[in-house]
Amino acid sequence: MKSATALTRRAVVLATAATLAGPGLVLAQSPAAAAAEENPARSQAFVFERALRGAVELGGQQLAKRALVLAPEFLLSTEEATVRGVRLGGYGFYFDVQVPDIQSTMIVLDMMAARQRRGGPSQPVSDMSAVEDEAMTASPAFDADREYSSFVRQALTDAMLDSSGVLTIGPNDRLTVAVSGIERRGPNPLYRSESGKLMMTIIGADLVDLRQGRITRDEARARVVVETF
Question: DSSP string covering 38-87, please?
């Protein structure tokens, strides 16, 4: 049997090692991990922000496929959506999504559609000269701006229903996704050129009902309240 002195000495060594290891573990912890421990809602919002950015990208991909038949040279903006989320006490989660527009490519698309209707050759994408008279000619079969908005809105709604499980949302909480174009600042820092917002909101109880099978996906989609601001 080991002596009491040996056991005591071993206990002191173990206690000392634990004391020395403790600070080391804290120092090795990343700032992001520390922030997540202090504010788990921020970590949850960060994950959902990525899901919303992916939804906007998916909407753009769907538009590109739709445009492929009409205008193979159609190029969608490669600008990434800007997404910021926050948890509000007594409310739930609010996410602001700024979607890149396709205005720069719509001129080319409209020009090519007009030429195709007249049976003329397609204009190279890089050649933007002498197209002012055709720039505003819209294709009756393909409204790129409207379809882009529809694809993005549908993809964001799907993200709200499918990916919001990462968020801690109580039955009485709300999840709101506010969608607008990317904010462009002019030379005056006090002036902001900001488009209207599409506000999509669903309450936590409806999300719980969907996940537990008490309502269908179509019913959950119908419960998303849509407003403009």
Answer: H-HHHHHHHHHHHHHHHHHHHHHHHHHHHHHTT-TT-----PPPEEEEEE
- Sequence letter at residue 212: Q
Going by pLDDT thresholds of 50, 70 and 90, the confidence category of residue 190 is: low
Which residues, 6 or more positions from 168, have their beta carbon under 8 angstroms from its beta carbon? 40, 41, 44
- What would the pLDDT profile of 6-18 be if each residue is shown by its tens digit? 444 444 333 433 3
The candidate with the shortest Cα–Cα distance to 149, out of 49, 63, 66, is 63
Cβ contact 180:83 at 8 Å: no
Chain segment 95-133, per-residue pLDDT in tens: 999 998 775 444 444 545 555 555 544 444 334 333 334
Burial class of residue 185 (count of CB atoms within 10 Å of its CB; 0-12, 13-18, 19+): exposed
Neighbouring C-alpha atoms within 13 Å toward the C-beta of 53:
14
CA-only gyration radius of the chain, Å: 27
**DSSP label of 170:** -
Q: How far is CA 72 from CA 19, 87, 100, 140, in A?
A: 66, 42, 21, 17
Separation in Å, CA 201 to CA 11, 149, 179, 206, 208: 58, 17, 11, 11, 14
Give residue 167's pLDDT: 97
Residue bearing tokens 């769907």: 62
Q: How many CB atoms lie within 10 A of CB 50?
A: 13
